[in-house]
From TrEMBL:
It is a multi-pass membrane protein. This is Erythritol transport system permease protein. Keywords: Cell inner membrane, Cell membrane, Membrane, Transmembrane, Transmembrane helix, Transport. Its main location: membrane. It is found in: Cell inner membrane. Belongs to the binding-protein-dependent transport system permease family. AraH/RbsC subfamily. The lineage of its organism: Bacteria, Pseudomonadati, Pseudomonadota, Gammaproteobacteria, Aeromonadales. One of its GO terms (cellular component) is plasma membrane. It comes from Succinivibrio dextrinosolvens DSM 3072. GO terms for molecular function: transmembrane transporter activity. The chain crosses the membrane at residues 46-65, 72-96, 102-126, 173-194, 225-248, 260-292, 304-323.
């Protein structure tokens, strides 16, 4: 094994290596880090970043980006809070829905936001960055409009109205967070679709070479729209979980979480250029973000320093990704020359 092979092996396993080093570092830096209570808290945060990151991975794989997911988190949570506390009023009558229906409505809102993003990007040829940046503000404004910027507190519902049980999504079952269970289910489904189905192969092809994919018969626009709808659904699910954990909904919930989603995906090996990405890598990347965030809090690091460090982590991850792609290209060229 030559030098390049060793470097490539390290680069491919960099996510696990970094996660291991971070766990060791914070375990030494803070006595409270490696306790059951702290690990449970980290797991709950990782579940949120992981689900968001999975949706973002699908978008990035196509060569796009979705900056609206953080706002969709807040909007879906506010919709759930509004329906639980105040119901839905029409023609002078107020209707209260069961929790499963409320969850479906909140997810539907996320899907609609994703649908709008996808249509703007594909049918109107607007750059994903611009389209989703605009939708980020629209969704955040809509979240604030639901309550005029106020919080919907104490989302426990009423037995008489049949809308109790919302807090289940933020609880633990047999000591295991429900949020993590949801992450595992979504991760398995997303991984199978990405690697074992024609749809997954198509979106990988779109990110690799969109023109070639179109000439091969791939319905590029339709697949892109579905990808953004999936990202919106993932964001809505995160909004439901986060709101359930707090037993209250606030319009600014999820603010800047799109950065955590992007960071988790990129740290997990998803390329910002498209065509490359794995769900397992994104979940590990989410663990890195969760460990960094909670570890710094336990060590008393300022919130402002946390923002700087997260930003540097994203930049460094992109630099390493570019280096890996360049090294792979050089190794492939060298192999072809040796075979001649």
């Amino acid at each position: 094994m030559n030098k390049n092979d060793v470097i490539m092996t390290i680069l491919k396993g960099r996510t696990l290596i970094v996660l291991t080093l971070l766990v060791i570092f914070f375990s030494c830096a803070s006595e409270s880090f490696f306790t059951s209570q702290s690990l449970l808290l980290i797991a709950k945060h990782v579940a949120l970043y992981g689900i968001l990151g999975i949706g973002m991975t699908y978008v990035l794989v196509t060569g796009g980006i979705d900056l609206s997911v953080g706002s969709v988190v807040g909007l879906s949570g506010m919709i759930a809070g509004l329906l639980i506390n105040h119901g839905f009023t029409m023609f002078g009558y107020t209707f209260y829905f069961s929790i499963p229906v409320i969850v479906l409505i909140a997810i539907f809102i996320g899907v609609i936001v994703g649908l709008i993003n996808g249509i703007i990007i594909t049918k109107f040829a607007v750059a994903p960055f611009i389209a989703t940046l605009g939708m980020m503000y629209v969704a955040r404004g809509a979240a604030n409009l639901t309550s005029n910027g106020a919080t919907f507190p104490n989302l426990v519902g009423k037995e008489a109205l049949g809308n109790t049980g919302f807090e289940i999504f933020g609880r633990d079952i047999a000591g295991f967070p429900v949020a993590v269970m949801i992450l595992i289910i979504i991760a398995i489904i997303a991984a199978v679709i990405l690697r074992k189905t024609p749809f997954g192969w198509h979106i990988l092809a779109i990110g690799g070479n969109e023109r070639a994919a179109k000439l091969s018969g791939v319905h590029v626009d339709n697949d892109k729209i579905l990808v953004y709808m999936f990202s919106g659904a993932c964001a809505a699910i995160v909004g439901i979980i986060a709101t359930s954990q707090l037993v209250a909904s606030h319009p600014m919930t999820g603010n800047t979480w799109e950065m955590n989603a992007i960071a988790a995906a990129v740290l997990g090996g998803t390329s910002l250029m498209g065509g490359v990405g794995t769900i397992v890598g994104t979940v590990i990347g989410a663990f890195i973000i969760g460990v960094i965030s909670d570890g710094m809090v336990m060590c008393g690091v300022s919130e402002f320093w946390q923002m700087i460090i997260k930003g540097l982590v994203i930049v460094l991850a992109v630099i390493i990704d570019q280096y890996q792609r360049s090294l792979q290209a050089r190794m492939a060229l060298q192999a072809r020359n040796e075979n001649k």
